[in-house]
Fold:
Amino acid sequence: MIVMKAGATDTEIQNVVEEIHKYGLAADVSRGEFRTVIGLVGDERKAPFSHFALLPGVKEAMMIDTPYKLISKEYGKLSDSGNEFRPVKVGNITVGGDELVYIAGPCAIESKQQLFKIAEGVKRAGAHILRGGVFKPRSSVHSFQGLGGNGMEEAEEALSWLREAGDMYEMPVITEVRGETQVDLTARYVDIMQIGSRNMYDQDLASAIGRKQKPVLFKRHFGAGIEEFLSFAEYIAAEGNKDIIMCERGIIPVGKGKNFTRYTFDLAAIPVIQKETFLPVLADPSHATGRRDLIFSMSCAAVAAGASGLMIESHYDPKEALVDGSQMITPDELKEVIDACNRVHAIMSPVKR
Ligand code: PEP
Ligand code: MN
Structure:
């Protein structure tokens, strides 16, 4: 990491970047209000820090040999105007700002009529962002794969409905991108690209999505430690894209016998991740529990734990849903969750995150 002097000129900054490139490394230039910080991307052991420290305009040059630094709290404090938190702006919605943000919608888009009816319902309930899966990650090749499973033409049609529903009900839209071949198409239609739990370890997918320079919702793998989760988010940041929203969605339960929940909701991960990074942290109680009767309490708990918002699956008739019906709540129930969470947030917000 290279910290520039307060009055460093553009030419001096550019000169440092060129020096970094000479050693086969990339540079992440973060211009704060008072100071510019340049992060080295790549194997820093190749870099001669004593040489960098002598370049004009440089205040300090030091090696930071950690798996994630571009998204770390320290880096954020040094650059980006010294802010501890860096909200992600999506249209006129701010994720990680003063207000909680709710992402809601069906697990999978099944038809235009289904999507529009749900969009109307979740908007009325107070949701800010509309979700809907097109490329569904499924455990069996024999189950419904989302409309994306029927080929790229149907995928594009479903994505165009998502865009239309979002525009109609004034909500930015999000969908999961499951593989690199889906990146270009999806980026043309949505405001946030989601990397699902099963793909958290796919560094090529993270890089390809990062390069689109659009906000990314990054979900924790159900078997990943927190350091791994942060380290793989760094692949997105290394593409110069810090518009990353982290999402806790449950980890694999332990022991034998019935566990009663789909995953174990790792609530403590929320404040822990928030202490490590300036990125906003969201929680998904739907996939974490797999149970609609737990959504209310677990949503309140996630907000009390410091989540900047929630992702909740919603459907006007959960029994009818082709995927994840057991964890869906109706728009009316969503409204109750949102009202309660906003009250919890009001109590918690004076408490330091
Ligand atoms: C989803 O949000 O649609 C999803 C499949 O979640 P996860 O990747 O957390 O399982
Ligand atoms: Mn789902």
About this structure: The radius of gyration is 21 Å. DSSP finds twelve helices and 14 strands in the chain. The mean pLDDT is 96.
